[in-house]
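The following block was generated as part of the benchmark described in Methods. Ligand: magnesium ion.
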Amino acid sequence: MSLKIPKVIGHRGAAAYAPENTLEGIHTAADMGVEWVELDVKLTRDQVPVIFHDETLERTTNGSGKLAETDYEDLKQLEAGSWYGDSFSGIKIPTLEEAIDVLLERGLGLNLEIKPCPGREMETAEAALDVLSQIWDDHDSLLISSFQHVSLEAARDVAGDWKRGLLMPEEWPENWKELADYLGISTMNLNNTGLEREMIEQVIDDLDMPVLVYTVNDPDRARQLQGWGADGFFTDTPDVILENLLSVH
Ligand code: G3P
Ligand code: MG
């Protein structure tokens, strides 16, 4: 089994062109020829895995308050497209299951970022993997990632043969190599901000695994990072990055 990670991964779907983390975003990415998308998963109060980025509802919905304190029945009444543009009004927050159905229908791979609300690191990973394990067969087109080490640990423990990626904040923890080893990860997902050639080279030298960089919307920067050895990019503008990458790498 080997991961088939493409060079270009649509960030939160295709966040520059459709509301983030929605079914419409997945369709938009697929229409652009994107092979994989990155989506964030969190739990509602009643433990339903939904595709959502923030801890609170205000920015991307017409609701308010905390996602972790909202039941799915209430969440599904909310509207998650108008903030982005009138043409997207009426869009709903998808469950993980609904998102997977569209991904499979469109033949896309998935980087699922486990993005737990505070204190729910383990249960978010377990609930998401439980849903995935019932529907997703092709492990070569699935990468589970997280900034949260507890979530990656839980993923390792419940589905050890599924590939995991370690999301690195701008400031790297000192023990990143030990963490990578302990968590048994397959990719390093690095923050674009402040990222330098030496850092990528260090990962390649010390860990010998794919380097993915988030979030890269500038094609010149993508080419620079590619020249330094980066293997793939999370981007809000997948069409632009697809067009501008070097074809051989
Ligand atoms: O997985 C890459 C990227 O999505 C991590 O940051 O905040 O956009 O989820 P964020
Ligand atoms: Mg994310």
